[in-house]
Amino acid sequence: MKKIILGLIIMIAIFAFTNSQKNKFSEESLSKKLITTQNTEITFKEVLNKHKGKITVIEIWASWCSDCVKAMPKVKAMQKKNPKVDYVFISMDKVFDKWQAGIEKHTLNGDHYWVNDEKMMKGAFGKSIDLDWIPRYIILDKEGKIVTYRAIETDFKQINETLKKLE
After folding, report:
1. Please, are residues 57 and 137 in contact by the beta-carbon 8 Å criterion?
2. Helices then strands (H, E): number in the chain?
């Protein structure tokens, strides 16, 4: 009986791990439309293609998110430590103007996009990337392969170690 229970626990753990770490985005998430700072539409796939050949950190955030704001100094330190890395910020703000003000207030250097979905994290884009918390960090290697799929504001040590290995 103990072996059966242990076997079930191991199978559940393996299943949970394989679902939490993906190495590429689904076609569904790639087709989702984001809004640029110029208020034009672009697909998530087009955003990723702009960064092909570069190590890329994607941060999903919002100006109203206290954990996101608290993490900003760590993000800026990461950017200073890793200047050759591309940074993409995808906002889950409710309103275009609040998103724009958040970019300016926090002086975020990188490419910026907004998810125009009133359901925000629970909307189509959020669901397509398994978004359950913000800030969320995703790291892509130079080939565009996902190296880290789920990192949050408490994972900066791991994020920085991953970026160091990729350079």
Report:
1. yes
2. 7, 7
Q: State pLDDT tens for residues 36-54.
A: 999 999 999 999 999 999 9
Strands laid side by side in the 136-140 sheet: 41-43, 33-36, 111-114, 86-91, 56-61, 136-140, 146-151
Cα end-to-end distance, the chain, whole Å: 48
Let me know if 22 is exposed, middle or buried by CB neighbors in 10 A (0-12, 13-18, 19+). Answer: middle
What is the phi/psi pair of residue 90, to 5°?
-115, 120
Q: For residue range 11-28, what is the model confidence (pLDDT) as tens digits?
A: 444 444 444 568 889 999
Cα 108 from Cα 87, distance rounded (Å): 9
DSSP code at position 141: -
What three-state secondary structure class fits 63?
coil
